[in-house]
Amino acid sequence: MRLNPDKTLEIVSTPAAAAVFKLKLNHPTIQNTERANSIKALGIIISSQLSMTEHVSTILDCCARSIYRLRLHRARGMNDDCLLQEVFYSTVLARLVYASPAWSVNQYALMGLDITV
After folding, report:
1. Cα dist. 86→19, 34, 75, 106, 108 in Å?
2. At 53, is the pLDDT very low, low, confident or very high (cuts 50, 70, 90)?
3. Which of the pair, 79 or 32, is modelled with greater confidence?
4. pTM of the model
5. Count of C-beta atoms within a 10 Å radius of residue 59
6. Where are the domains of the chain?
């Protein structure tokens, strides 16, 4: 297996109270990698403190914009509630449920929410 140095980022997880270590990996393939504070892998943003705060904020921001667009469609005459619900389930709820076990949210609890668009 070969690493692509152009697509490789280094992330170091440290305790919150610890100073940032000046540790660099000694592998010839990844000598010149960039150190990142957070990475995005398979749509999940993971910070160097292993916190999901940035991921949750990004997802909620995206969902809020989608809900706003759905409300605009309803205000402009799209009165088919079944269609609006299908769009909601396929966009907003799908984003909320995707990778929810990674940040300790029960996806079945999300499905039981009484959400109005």
Report:
1. 48, 42, 17, 21, 18
2. confident
3. 79
4. 0.63
5. 21
6. 5-47, 53-111
CA distance 66 to 94: 12
pLDDT given at position 8: 75
* β-pairing verdict for 34-35 and 38-41: unpaired
Q: Tokens 């297996």 label which residue? A: 1
Please list, residue by residue across 12-24, b when 16 or more beta carbons sit within 10 angstroms of its beta carbon and e when fewer do.
eeeeeeeeeeeee
Q: What's the rounded mean pLDDT across residues 1-19?
A: 68
- Distance, in Å, from the CA atom of 6 to the CA atom of 23, rounded to the nearest integer, reads 20
Mean per-residue pLDDT of the chain: 75
Helix then strand then coil, in percent of the chain rounded to 5, is 45, 10, 45
Mean pLDDT of 3-22: 65
Closest CA to 46 of 102, 107, 6, 105: 102
Helix (H) or strand (E) holding 56, with range, is helix 53-75
